Amino acid sequence: MPESHIATKMRWSRADVAALLALPFPELLFRAQTVHREHFDPTRIQISTLLSIKTGGCPEDCGYCPQAAGYETGTKAGRLMAVEAVLVEARAAKAKGAARFCMGAAWRSPKEHDLDAVCGMIEGVKALGLETCVTLGMLTGPQTAKLKEAGLDYYNHNLDTSPEYYGKVITTRTYQDRLDTLEHVRDAGINVCCGGIVGMGEDESDRAGLIATLASLPEPPESVPINALVAVEGTPLAKAEPIDAIDFVRVIAAARITMPRSYVRLSAGREAMTDEAQALCFMAGANSIFHGEKLLTTKNATVNHDEALFAKLGLKAEQ
Length: 319
Ligand code: SAM
Ligand code: DTB
Ligand code: SF4
Prior knowledge:
The chain is an alpha/beta fold. The chain has eleven helices and ten strands.
């Protein structure tokens, strides 16, 4: 199995990752912690805040998503927010300790005039001294160039699951579409934020396939969000069996070991997690979270709860 210190130049096969996921838990955690400490201070957590700048009414059919127009989820579709309203939220996020401000839009891909408006938001948020991230759906090469020019730091575009399981969850675009956008983002010199969702009925081999694909991209993503499905009533995945907490920690550990220099974000799903499960995620190498009462449309762990958890675990926000 590949050694961690040369892993950035390494290609990880699905079998390699499956072998990691199957390790005895103490062994897996020890390996993840060893790799984590080679590259990071394990007591520091990167803090990002999310804002939905354009909610609902999305033409895509992602089986997990409350914002897809085709599902009755009670999500109210809105228009793109005004720049000034976004900046009010960004200032509040900064005051609460966020270092990065992530803006999400429920689009298949952005229209040109919408992209121009988002560029204005990026410029405004950057001027506050925050890092910027946006997730807007599929992009062309010229669109990524425009975002780079506006000063965008990160683009979030998730592969979500293994290539094989993808078609069971989404039919309106392909895995290759996702990979193409990721290539445009990388070519434009924007940092890549790319991860997936677990707890969608996939098996362990699909989880291994997702992690192996992420780790074997030409460059691993700088930021790897691992989401536990937030099962929303009205979506096709509303009744999906929740992932076992230990299995979730295993996925975090595998992401850490295979992408040693990346930030691994314990992303959606924290609201439903115990403190103990979150603590294990941090011990397995997770070093980033979304902070704030809301993700895009669903509830996040509360700010008060996070403060208490960080104090209990001796964790500090990375500035
Ligand atoms: N529309 C754009 C796209 O899909 O690329 C950007 C916004 S979309 C909501 C961003 C990501 O949120 C998705 O790729 C998915 O990984 C994650 N996501 C959406 N709904 C989720 C849910 N119910 N639970 C966990 N993650 C979810
Ligand atoms: C990511 O990987 N997770 C975030 C962010 N990137 C955009 C989104 C989570 C969304 C959870 C469901 C919701 O709140 O609508
Ligand atoms: Fe649309 Fe993104 Fe939700 Fe898919 S995940 S339905 S593309 S908002």
